Amino acid sequence: MAATRHAQLIKQDSKEYLVTALLQLLEHKNLNEITVSQVVKRAGVSRMAFYRNFDTLEDLLKSYFGPVIADRFDEVKNKVSETDKIDKVGEFFADYSKILKLSIDRGFEQVIKNIFDANMLDFYDGISLPVELTTMQRKYWTKFMSAGVYSIWREWLIDGQKESLEEIHALIAKFQNSTMNSLVN
């Protein structure tokens, strides 16, 4: 049993070293310019350690950002009052603005966007929507809102965060309410 526990600790350490190495390399290079060899060399682990855990560098990024973003969404979804949810989402935008900017600049934005989208869909699936909505309307409304929220966040970030988060929240709320009202009416 001790060997198994030890092996698990080594595997976890290897993952952490690999993530750290990749994030350090991304500070100066685009994702498509980075090789697995560069990552394992910087991490001080073997290629086997990489391939035992991941197939691609994108998988490594997903393994790191997936739980980090999911934890924040879980907090917003399950541990925050309805009135505080939009503020918590705003904190998410502020807290992750640097990583989103890095993902845009270094060519791994799609990884972040896919994780964000999956969590937004789960978030919207967990809220009460009018019973008049059909399954199809609910599905496409949540996709629409997820894509819209991400696009607003991205544009706000790229444009230098000129508007306050309160203004952005109000805009998102208006879009959310007006599109929902349009579907119901």
Can you give a write-up of this model?
The chain has 185 residues and is mostly helical. It folds into two domains: 1-54, Orthogonal Bundle (Arc Repressor Mutant, subunit A); 56-184, Orthogonal Bundle (Tetracycline Repressor, domain 2), CATH 1.10.357.10. Helices cover 78% and strands 0% of the residues. The longest helix has 25 residues, at 2-26. It is elongated. It starts with a helix and ends with a helix. The model has no long low-confidence stretch (mean pLDDT 88).
Low-pLDDT stretches: none
Average pLDDT confidence is 88
Count the strands? 0
Q: SSE order, as H and E? A: HHHHHHHHH
CATH A-level architecture of the largest domain:
Orthogonal Bundle
CATH superfamily of the largest domain: Tetracycline Repressor, domain 2
Strand content: under 5%
Radius of gyration: 19 Å
**Which structural category fits the helices and strands?**
mainly alpha
Helix content: over 70%
CATH level 3 topology of the largest domain: Tetracycline Repressor, domain 2
Shape: elongated
Largest sheet: none
Number of domains: 2
Terminal-residue CA separation = 62 Å
CATH class of the largest domain: Mainly Alpha
The helix count comes to 9
